[in-house]
């Protein structure tokens, strides 16, 4: 199991990036006191939402409208979330509206294709689909009106994307918990297959692994001065004595948008995570490492992001660096010190798993039955085919039997000196024999012209007999 690289940014973060890009030219935001890494483009990261492309395209098109762009620059996040920006849609140019209509029609068509594909998989082809009813499940556009993009569509898009992204981390935690429970379930099932001695050995080995995993250097509290100084020194290669929060912020704002976003923040924890996790160690699970990274990022965002836009501004960062917690933080409890699930949660999980297994077994049984029925039908068809072939062969032989003599005649021409076949009982050469006789008779007559005057049957007088 592998985690998808976390990329949850708010749709208003995308809008925010556009605002920031407009407000401050990129070349003016480079810090002057340190050498900066190459600036990336201002392209926002993939949000990970299934309608990410639609969301981006809508924002791109809106951004081409002067009036709307101006409103974007002056609106704050709360206003955007409250839907105030959506009302401005009525004032954008006709061309922009037409482009948005087209985008919406494309999105509806895409959703319809998704529905169709899903139905084909679950219920087989040729099922009549009620697209109108099924489109209700999508909240990022108004399905009642599939042809035009209205202010309601923009409002729904912003609200849904905001809500989906806020739930993104929660869903990832839940997915991780299920992963851990599955691991434990499989371990316990494996133990059941062992005898007492081997089970004890295996349990001892498991405890040793856990102990080995927990034995790692001290992890600094995420976002604390010690943690950031370690990055400053080991990753950036700078003198710890020169540590300066403002310079640190500018150094790690990789895309130069004047904010530390979630990805830029998560990159700061790699050094800490490497203390706990090594991909070469059997006892270190790299899926757990990504969960730990997520926990660290969430913790720092909660502490530092005052306006809750999921972005850390320089102002917020500097304010946090003045707090007492920055220099004197509590100990950070790593994932291996947490209870990830209770026994009762594990039992519930196992019972769900057993139910799913039963359903799968039932499906597999039905498929096997269908396969056997098809095999039997196939065999019956093969037998019928063979019988039909035999019947055709018999008919052909019969036909050949009736037409046989003509074939014999064709390939056995009568010769002058030919003699009748010895086997007179053979049915096929009979006609040939008769013809031979006729031929001989003609030959005889050729030597006796008198025979020509009298039919052979009446008995013509012999030439040595006297004529009357
Ligand atoms: Ca940034
Ligand atoms: Ca913020």
Detailed description of the structure:
The model is unreliable at 1-11, 16-42, 407-431 and 445-468 (pLDDT under 50). This protein has 18 helices and 2 strands. A two-stranded antiparallel ribbon has the order 1-2. The longest helix is centred in the C-terminal third of the chain and has 69 residues, at 343-411. 61% of the residues lie in helices and 1% in strands. The chain is flat. It has 468 residues and is an all-alpha fold. Bound molecules: calcium ion (2 copies). Residues 305, 307, 309, 311-313, 316 line the site of one calcium ion.
Outline the secondary-structure elements.
Elements: H1 11-23, H2 52-63, H3 66-74, H4 77-81, H5 84-87, H6 94-123, H7 131-134, H8 151-192, H9 196-214, H10 225-235, H11 245-252, E1 259-260, H12 262-267, H13 270-276, H14 286-304, E2 312-313, H15 314-321, H16 324-327, H17 343-411, H18 430-446
Antiparallel strand pairs: 1-2
Helix pairs in contact: 1-2, 2-6, 8-14, 11-15
The structure holds calcium ion (CA) (2 copies).
């Amino acid at each position: 199991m592998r985690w998808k690289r976390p990329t949850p940014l708010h749709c208003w973060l995308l809008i925010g990036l556009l605002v920031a890009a407009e407000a401050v030219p990129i070349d003016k935001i480079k810090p002057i006191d340190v050498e900066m890494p190459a600036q990336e483009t201002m392209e926002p990261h993939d949000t990970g939402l299934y309608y990410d492309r639609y969301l981006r395209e809508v924002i791109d098109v809106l951004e081409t409208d002067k009036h709307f762009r101006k409103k974007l620059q002056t609106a704050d996040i709360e206003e955007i979330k409250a839907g105030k920006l959506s009302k401005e849609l009525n004032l954008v140019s006709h061309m922009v509206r037409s482009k948005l209509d087209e985008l919406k029609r494309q999105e509806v068509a895409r959703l319809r294709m998704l529905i169709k594909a899903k139905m084909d998989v679950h219920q087989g082809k040729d099922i009549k689909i009620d697209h109108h009813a099924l489109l209700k499940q999508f909240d990022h556009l108004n399905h009642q009106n599939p042809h035009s993009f209205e202010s309601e569509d923009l409002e729904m898009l912003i609200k849904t994307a905001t809500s989906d992204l806020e739930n993104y981390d929660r869903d990832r935690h839940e997915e991780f918990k299920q992963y851990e429970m599955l691991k434990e379930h499989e371990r316990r099932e494996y133990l059941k297959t062992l005898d007492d001695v081997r089970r004890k050995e295996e349990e001892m080995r498991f405890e040793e692994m856990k102990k080995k995993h927990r034995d790692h250097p001290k992890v600094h509290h995420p976002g604390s001065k010690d943690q950031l100084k370690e990055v400053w020194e080991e990753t950036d290669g700078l003198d710890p004595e020169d540590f300066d929060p403002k310079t640190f912020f500018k150094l790690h704002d990789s895309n130069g948008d004047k904010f530390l976003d979630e990805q830029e923040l998560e990159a700061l924890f790699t050094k800490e995570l490497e203390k706990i996790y090594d991909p070469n160690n059997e006892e270190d699970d790299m899926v757990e490492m990504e969960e730990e990274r997520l926990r660290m990022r969430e913790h720092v965002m909660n502490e530092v992001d005052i306006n809750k836009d999921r972005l850390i501004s320089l102002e917020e960062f500097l304010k946090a660096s003045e707090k007492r917690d920055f220099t004197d933080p509590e100990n950070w409890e790593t994932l291996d010190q947490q209870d990830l699930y209770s026994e009762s949660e594990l039992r519930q999980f196992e019972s769900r798993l057993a139910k799913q297994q039963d359903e799968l077994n039932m499906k597999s049984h039905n498929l096997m039955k269908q396969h056997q029925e098809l095999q039997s039908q196939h065999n019956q068809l093969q037998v019928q085919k063979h019988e039909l072939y035999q019947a055709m062969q018999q008919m052909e032989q019969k036909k050949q039997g009736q037409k046989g003599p003509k074939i014999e005649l064709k390939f056995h021409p009568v010769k002058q000196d030919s003699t009748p076949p010895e086997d007179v009982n053979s049915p096929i050469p009979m006609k040939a024999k008769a013809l031979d006789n006729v031929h001989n008779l003609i030959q005889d007559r050729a030597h006796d012209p008198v025979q020509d005057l009298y039919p052979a049957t009446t008995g013509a007088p012999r030439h040595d007999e006297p004529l009357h």
